[in-house]
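WARN  no MSA supplied for this record, continuing single-sequence
INFO  ligand: glutamic acid
INFO  echoing inputs
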Amino acid sequence: MSLAPAYLSPSNSPIEQYLRQLLAKHAGLEEGAVADYIPELAKADPRSFGICIATRDGHIYEVGDTRQAFTIQSISKALTYGIALEDHGEDFVLAKVGVEPSGDAFNAISLKPESGAPFNPMINAGAIAICGQISPADGQTRSEKILARLSAYAGRTLTVDEAVYLSESQTGHRNRAIGWMLRNFDILDHEPTDILESYFRQCAIQVTCRDLAIMGATLANQGRNPLTRERAVDPAYVHNVLSVMSTCGMYDYSGEWLYRVGLPAKSGVGGGILAVLPGQLGIGIYSPPLDRQGNSARGIKVCEDLSRDLALHLFANGTAPQPSLRLTYDGSQVSSCRRRPSRLQQKLRATGHRIRVIELQGELIFSTFEPVIRLALKQAPYCDFVILNLRYVMTIDEVALKMIIELKQTLSELGLQMMVCDGEQFAKVFQEAGLEQSMQFANEDTALEHCENELLKRIVGPDWNKLTPVSLKDCFLLSELDAEELAWLDGEMGTRESPQGDYLIHAGDPGDSLYLLVAGSVEVRLPETSNQAGKRIDVFEAGMSFGEMGLLDGLPRSANVVVLDDAVCRVISRPLFESLDSVRPGLKIKLLKRLSYLLSYNLRKSNDEVAAYRG
Ligand code: GLU
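INFO  complex generated
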């Protein structure tokens, strides 16, 4: 036996080490015999043995003969079932092929007596009927379509082993008999001859153990190949495929397999087994000798060990999914970046608790989102706004999506506005579900600003936001100065008028002056070099000042300052600031007092936010 592929990969992962031990443990098992009813299959090397696990995010652990090609055989039946469902929908397919375990051999000529329908799509009768339902399309023959779809599952171009195909075609009289039975009962609506050839070709598609694991991971990943990101099957039908694998995938061992291993799986007479842990991983095993039921003898042992050692059994897995509720805080603890004049600031401090932010995470499904509904409804009497922050959400299933829309509706009936933020990746599904664009915000900052503005509008009235130029004495920084000091400073300071869009400050500029904004508004944005380039971190309006940090510590500017509304600034340059020591020491102390108040205000705001974000 060659272990080369595994040993060539310089992996020290304990997972690969474990798989190597597993391979060594079962390599000596001499039970079972290589299938020979298709003459060409008898040529397989009984010592070949490979184990591969592919994770849902596309990492592959492989040991042994994982790159050795063999024919997929019956494993193809699970995958073609998905294609037929896509082509015709559940009702049509179920009317022709059942989903009950049959208890008969895979090649039994057994059909339900009344309807002639095969018991399930995993026995040959069912699989041949399913093959007949696959419609040739887009210039592809049925066989080409099947090959292309299975290639999408594997993430590479697969080919047919012509020798095995011919061998089965020349000897597959029993399957031909099944085909004609199906035609007799109108389960096939035309002559089965070409359908049977397609069926023989699908069974002869060459795969490796690695391919099987990736195909399994594709099913685990809702039908999307985790390596190529290509969709191999419509996610709406993944559970149908996995269900028939669970109940009928392992021939007459299916019941015991589910009991012992607990994973949807399908095996084939070529010696392959494909198993899936839904939502998590795919497993591929290759070892040609088959046991009495027709399953790979070593494969069964390996899967029993894997399931027990790695706790993969579906029904032994009582772990609850990660809760969706990450953190919650209100608008008095965390506020938007827009600075408010102190009269508005006070109002927000008193009423900010009426904005409730709920940070969500992970996968939103019924059981993880249900506690969020409870929380939102419990908070409803105390709030006017609920923001669902989706920054750490990975997926939202259809049920959770519906629950979000219904929660919004219920809250709106109670007089609350609900919005989402940081959910760019879900914009399309939200749009389809009918969530207005205006209730989707790019980030928490803009959502908070929206809520604060709405609150202020309610409390202060429609004119709350009127930007009016202020006189010097209304500038917070100068509020301690008397009239004479103001007049003197007025004569000393420079003036800078800047139109909307102008950069008042560029990151990296020397920090050589302090700006008093007497008209308009400006926004502070992270520089292009930052990993959050362009993100706003502050908004100032008339009456506020900025640029004090550079003046105090002499360091270059750390962000850009861009004018939002035509701005007029009065400028205290470093020379002027320093000259105050000797010419106007009293005035400088008053300025410094205000500056230290501003700094402590900023620090307190940051502390509050850090405390809120820590939960
Ligand atoms: N081509 C095989 C047949 O129909 C598939 C059998 C199998 O893997 O179970 O006989």
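Confidence is low (pLDDT under 50) at residues 1-8.
INFO  checksum written, moving to next record
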